[in-house]
Amino acid sequence: MVPFCVIAAEKESADLIRQNLIKTGLYPDWEFQVCTSAKDLYAFSPDRPDVVVVSRFLPGEDTRVLLQRLPLLFPASHIVLLAGNMDEKGKAFVRAAKQVGLNNIVTGKLPGDRPYNILAALKYAREDDELSALVSGEEETVTPAEEKGEYVPEPPEAAPLVDAAYKEPPLSHSPQPARPQSFSPVGGQESRRDADYLDELLGRYAGSPGQALERPTARAFPAKPVQEVRVYPRTGERGVFVLTAANKGGVGKTTVAVTLAVALARAGVPVALWDLDFGAPDVASFFDLSGVAGIEALAKGSFRPEMAGGLLVKAGENLYVLPGPMDRTVPAFEPGEIGAIAQHLLSRFPVVLGDTPPEFWTKPWLEGVFPLADKVLAVVDQSKLSEQETAAYAPCLLAMGVTPEKISIVLNRFSSKLHNAKLVEKHFCSGFKKDIPAKMLPKVAAVIPEEWEAYVQRGYKGEVVGLDDAYSQWHALAGEIATAAGYTYRKPEGEKKAFFRFFGRKKKK
Question: Which of these, 156, 193, 311, 481, has the minimum number of CB atoms within 10 Å of its CB?
Answer without folding.
Answer: 156
